[in-house]
């Protein structure tokens, strides 16, 4: 997974977020609406955010976001702007066919600037929005704690590599303590979690290929 954490807001996200147009729009089941919902869901899960997190960050109801993600509702311009603010991206990046590049370079300074913090976890993107891409990669820093820094599941697969420290990775009913250089690859529909297993911060790289079904 540009999530979770304190995302930057551009001027056009402010403008759209302030749009007084009602959140609700006529229901549409077009291919455009379905793809838009998939993009929003992918970005939300990549950031480790729940529907309630988006509601708190963007001021749009979790129920309505769920409908949009499932292609059951089409957001107004104002609603799309609020979702973009909650995700920390420009609204144009949510829209299918918005001219995303086929090659995307993410500089270290840009990555740190878009890092999200959630509890004891800090997530920074290693990949940016790329046309047609289904792979996402993140650098995650896990502070020492008594429990998992992140627990989630999604469609597709995931690979985790430990850059430093010790991390307990749990997938389904199994768990392993991985040290620097160790890696694990698994089907991501199984509930999985990452927990710092040592006294110092641990850093991991995750690469995932989610496939969202509605």
Explain what the structure shows:
- It is a single chain.
- This protein has two domains: 84 residues, 434 Repressor (Amino-terminal Domain) (Orthogonal Bundle), CATH 1.10.260.40; 76 residues, Sandwich (Jelly Rolls).
- The N terminus is likely disordered.
- Helix 1 crosses helix 5 and helix 3 crosses helix 4.
- Strand 1 and strand 2 form a beta hairpin.
- The chain has six helices and ten strands.
- It has a six-stranded antiparallel β-sheet with strand order 1-2-3-10-5-8. Strands 4-9-6-7 form a four-stranded antiparallel β-sheet, with no helix packed on it.
- The chain is α+β, with helices and mostly antiparallel strands.
Which features would summarize this protein structure in a list?
214 residues, alpha+beta, 434 Repressor (Amino-terminal Domain), Jelly Rolls, 6-stranded antiparallel β-sheet, 10 strands, 25% strand, disordered N terminus
């Amino acid at each position: 997974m540009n999530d979770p954490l304190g995302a930057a807001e551009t001027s056009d996200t402010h403008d759209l977020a302030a749009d007084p147009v009602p959140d609700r729009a006529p229901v549409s089941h077009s291919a455009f609406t379905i793809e838009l919902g998939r993009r929003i869901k992918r970005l939300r899960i990549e950031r480790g955010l729940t529907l309630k997190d988006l509601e708190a960050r963007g001021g749009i109801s979790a129920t309505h976001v769920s409908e949009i993600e499932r292609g059951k509702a089409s957001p107004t311009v104002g609603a799309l702007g609020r979702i973009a603010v909650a995700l920390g991206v420009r609204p144009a990046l949510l829209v299918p066919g918005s001219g995303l590049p086929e090659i995307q370079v993410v500089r270290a300074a840009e990555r740190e600037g878009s890092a999200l913090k959630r509890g004891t976890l800090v997530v920074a993107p290693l990949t940016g929005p790329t046309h047609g891409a289904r792979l996402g990669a993140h650098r995650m820093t896990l502070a020492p704690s008594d429990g998992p820094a992140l627990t989630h599941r999604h469609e597709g697969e995931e690979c985790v590599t430990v850059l430093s420290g010790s991390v307990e990775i749990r997938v389904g009913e199994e768990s392993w303590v991985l040290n620097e250089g160790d890696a694990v690859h698994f089907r991501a529909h199984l509930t999985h979690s990452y927990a710092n297993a040592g006294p110092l911060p641990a850093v991991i790289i995750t690469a995932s290929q989610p496939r969202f079904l509605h």
